[in-house]
Amino acid sequence: MMRKKEVLAAIRRRYRDRQPLNVSTVKREDPELVAAVYDVTPYWGWKQALADAGLSYQSIRIEVRETVQCQLCGKSFRSLLGHLRIHETDPEDYRVKYPDAEIVSESMRQASMGPRCKMPAPWLPHWEPIYTPEYVLDRVKEYADQGIWMELSTIERLDASLLRAVRYHLDVSWDDALRWIGLDPVVYRGCYRPDDFSLADLQAFLEQRRAAGLLSTPAALFATYDDRHRRPRVFTWALQRYGNWSAALDAAGVDRSDPLFGGDRYLTKESVIEDLQRLQHELPDMSHTTVSLLPYGIQLTGAATRYYGGWDAALDAADIPVDIRRRMATYDSADEVVAGITHRLENEFSVAPLDVFFGARSDIQLWKAAFRFFSSWRSAVVKSGGTSAQVKQAADTPLGTRAKVLRELRRRSHDVRQLAITSLTSDVADKQLHAMASGFFGDWQSAVRAIGVDPKSYHQWNLTPHRKYADKESLLKEIRRRRRAGEPLHARGLTSGEHVDVPLLYTARKMFGDWESAIRAAGIDYDTIVRKRQDYDAYRDRVYRSYTSADQVTQELKRRHAEGMPLNVRAVTHSKEEEYRDFALFRAAKEYFGSWEAALTDAGIDVESIRPAWVTKRAERLRQKQQRSP
Questions:
Q1: Nearest-CA neighbor of 489 among 455, 464, 523, 456?
Q2: Is the pTM of this model over 0.90?
Q3: Alpha-carbon distance 388 to 579, whole Å?
């Protein structure tokens, strides 16, 4: 093994002989020299070895090869990506067979090394022409020596290509890469030990920011960096120590309702219930979307979910009527669209396409209506009086016209599976396409039809059908088996009851035209398996009720109450007992009285007395739970 002095002498000798000294070339010509540099502990690295030899990258010769040799035939090319097809192999198999072989020449790799846009100030310009495992380690070490915050998200923002190089050339995690160069990931990636700070340090930090009038919200602190591109160290420690920022603020004893600490309006369950009960008289509806569009709506919906597990559960706890929980805004005119967008602009809500369609304050109905009345979202924002910055934000999409949306859909149509809405991911490009297609064409399927593709053609059932009965023989065999086993063969018996087999019924209709033909093809007399004729006669003679006045509704309710029939909504609309079920009565009650409860009250029936026992018990449990909660 070469000693350090021998390594430095060898480097100086190559320099005197005017031989290239970039690490990729030296590794190819003198691998022992490079290995000796990276065997030194603590970590030395090739860049530091050159510096110790009195050299720099500005003074050495750098060489890159213009071609790469094919290991299968010996020919040289700038790239083997196309050439490998001649050998009927692909790059993955080639790499498995020749793990150290290159597929793309060094000159082509060098051309792709430079940044494609202006990089942030801490970004380090490349000193090696191409990435190698050794250069990857040197670059990681250089960022650490510069005092950069070695947190994964920070490096991804500064130098995303370095993270890809770590995965490709080293095939290790980020923490392992730090360990390879002798760094403790716990310290260098921004983590701290519990005793590095104390609660008093956190309180002093918060008081210092409060005195300076600085926000201490998570968003503000995540965007705060020191001269070494690190987030506030006490902030990072507090997140690790307490689990989240709200818990850290509570531990520090600050008032979270203070705007500097987030201005949280909902610190208790009671405050959530109080606002929900107040808003039901002020808003047109209590849907999640409508409440989210309030200036403090995100806080309210977030607190409701945090305290009660979900929005509907919180509405239940606040006794909000079911009929006002559904979104009622329809945007049936251009003026209503303008009013909706103006509300967003005045409250400084984002009007970026992805935020309107997918964000916390999304309003898909407004989005679609804007395209319907103004041809595009940007035009609608302009009409609503948006500033130049807001208009620019509204136009923040690469698919700003119908033609661009159609072009992207046609590009994906070479594989129809890419047109299935279930194939869309959380990738920004997919989100942009989904939002703009829904805007210009009303919905995703209409956009797909606009390029001449039937949505059914890419449905998973059509692409990979899983048929229970693949042919007529297997279907007829099952019919005969059911006959021998005494299982029902009429349509009702196949779709409900203990012997359900819907695929048998539907497949038979597809293969034979109707169920009767399938039964007869199985050699069974159809008249012996159908339900009793009187059942069909009764169905034919069935009387459909109707209520043409409020008095008829009231009389029917009184009759049902006198006969002891259930009068709760579920029994009237979905009861399995036909004499109890009467959806026409329920619909007429809402039409003439506004709600089912109002119709009962007008008929002199106590609403509480007709509630099912399970509803009453649930309400009692909720009240007891609220009383026990602090």
A1: 523
A2: no
A3: 64
